[in-house]
Amino acid sequence: MATVSTTPAPVAARRGATPLRRSQARTAWLLALPFLLLFATFTVGPVLASLFMSFTDMRSTDLRSPLAIDLAGFSNYVDLFGDPLFRKVAVNTAIFVLIGVPLTMALALAAAVGLNGITRVRSFFRLGYYLPVVTSIVAVAVVWRFLLQPDTGPINQVLGLIGIDGPNWLGSTTLALPTLIVMTTWRNLGYLMVIFLAGLQTVPREMLEAAEVDGASRWQRFRYVTVPVMRPTLLFGAVITSIGYLQFFEEPFVMTNGGPLDATRSTAMYVYDQFGFGNYGVATAASYVLFVAIAALTFVLFRALRPTE
Amino acid sequence: MTTFTPPTDTAAAVTERPNDTRAGGRPPRAERGASWWLYAVLGVGLLVMSLPFVWMLVSSVKPESEVRRVPPTWLPETVTSDNYQQLLDRLSFPTYFVNSTVVAVVVMLGNLVFCSMLGYALAKLDFRGKRVVFALVLGTLMVPGIAIIVPLFVLVTNLGLTNTFPGLFLPYLVTPIGVFLMRQYFLGLPDELISAARVDGAGEFRIFWNVMLPLTGPALATLALLTFLASWNNFLWPLVVAQTEDRYTLPVALALYSVGQNATEYGVLLAGAVVVVLPVIAVFLAVQRYFVQGIAMTGIK
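^ Those are the sequences you sent over. The predicted structure of the assembly is below.
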């Protein structure tokens, strides 16, 4: 891998402010400035402001005077965890992540191993599986809503052909969330598949052949050679997918509007709703709970992916 | 050094596998014989992945009555452009299309310029505070839109930018992942080029702009695609900041129509979905190797 390969200059020369070093530093800061200004204003600032706002009583009526608000201690967080709806959306989001991530991982890994085993038209398949990833979730959700219509939808029509009376997928409190999980899996598995396909190339062929000579079955080779070598890639996939699924928003927004009976309402939707009601304090508190969960996962990602020397 | 190890390590592997079709890369004989069922399974999978798009495309040219017919027709009996005509005449989709394009192009250009600038500084220049800046960029790689939406809205409102184009694109002009990508690419370019240019008397900025930046074509192409796409498909922020129809982007318009009073116009909504999806698919098919490269270089879509 490429690393910084500056020739190790003598310590004295590096420390001293030579004209070259000074002009380098000046150029570097000039180059960094636009990014840092925009980034501070529109990302770092809001991250900090969000934390601050979650401890205030800010409402939409304070929109034009954001400095004239009062501290409210932990009351937003107390309200949040006391709200049965928040507990409900947190559970929904957890279910979505805990079922959706393994499902997406398993199917993506199967697809990657499958593609790795063929030689012809592999890139054609890869393209097809990847297609849903690049398309707008909103557009895809609109299409799936029609596909899943209870009476006229093609999916239930096809089920009818083989004698199955298709259910009202999105209208049932028990089926709506699993249905959205399957749809989201359909959309995202191509992305993980490409990552896993790359990971599979790192499995040394000699190791697999040695295992085969030793009489390992195909499954044993996969389980005891491929999976251990791919461990960092799999972990990367799990974390990146979890981070995405924790923010689950467009699918329920377009397909179920959080219903029926909040069965598909997610934490991100809860934030959006509270924001819409003008409860900025509660909205930021809820968004910070989500943010901390995501930050924790990111931290795990960095720790796990640090190269082991 | 902290990096996303698996994707970068496998960058070469995913883009091109020279052994692949040569004798050395061919699977053992037994597996070759058994692979017909593998093609079959993968083919069924491909069908599942692509049928929703096919159905969307086919249904968008059916008249409304035929879209709802039971049992459904697979191929349209009557082909009509009526749904698309509705998008044009009644639902001002041309405006949304222009809005989406303008925002996505500005976002793309901003990222190309600003991310390559910082990426170069972090990769090739020596300055105090470099590690801190890089740590800051990496540490905020994963700030989700939903986590900052409220303060961002307060900020943009007080800047007087709600329902304006700057309000739509300003928060997305720079992305940490872009810096990460450009830095990685610059690291791979030889330092000798810089030393030689310095000997020739070129200023530091000139070296960046005229010597080094022109060598980053593939990275810039990848970054352009990733940021254009992310902006084109972005939903939450435009939903919040665009308040009248003349500022809606395509996903916002489509989502609001699909849950609003047009919710039952299946044909029109599907035509709308085609308008959102088709340009992306076209771009994707044209330059797909950059996508794969992008994933390989960053691990992030």
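Residues 156 and 164 of chain A are 8 Å apart (CA to CA). Chain A has 13 helices and no strands.

Shout if you want it in another format.
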